[in-house]
Amino acid sequence: MDPARLPRLAVAWLLVLAVVVGAAVGAAPTAGAQGSRSACQKLAHRPKDVARSARLVTAVRGDAETGRISACVLPRGKVRMLAAWDDGLSRDWAHVVTTAGTWVLVEEGHGDQYGGVSRSLTRYDVRSGRRLGLAGYGCQVGWGGPSSCPDGTNFGAVVMASSGAGAYELSDLATTTTTLQAFNSRGVLTKLADGPVEALRVTRTQIAWMQGGAAHAAPLPD
Length: 222
Hints:
Radius of gyration: 28 Å
């Protein structure tokens, strides 16, 4: 080999080595960044996120026989399981009624071939993990027994603001009465009206509804 070519070959090999090392160093942070993603960030990249807030992730996974609802607050909030069903016979179910801010309303139910029925409404504060039961009933119907549950509570229309406050129609099964109830972020209930309502809605400052052809409104509770 011509001795004069040796310096040029050495320079060429050094350039190749620099490119290889630079590519490896450049790739390392990307791999590290992916590996450091929180469980909440990973949940956000899965399908079926039904949350309306950019901060909240609410993922529904599964089918009629087996599934669960999980939620967390980005970027590194704890992933909380809000509901799960797994009886293999499509008798248990759950779904997200609505989300707002970092809050989720979840309905759960059961219905079997023996007349067992149940239904509940729960508000979850995903940031803290606190839960508030807003309505619920469960009993055995039919087979010579009652056609509906004799006690407990059921619900109709429901709305919620990003503060966690909202309102819903609450039916008392024992007294067969319906009221419009407001709830605040702390879970305190306040009766707004007697009887069923229509066109229930919520803004950042108030609750509005129609009843008897007349429009009504009340401040959104703190």
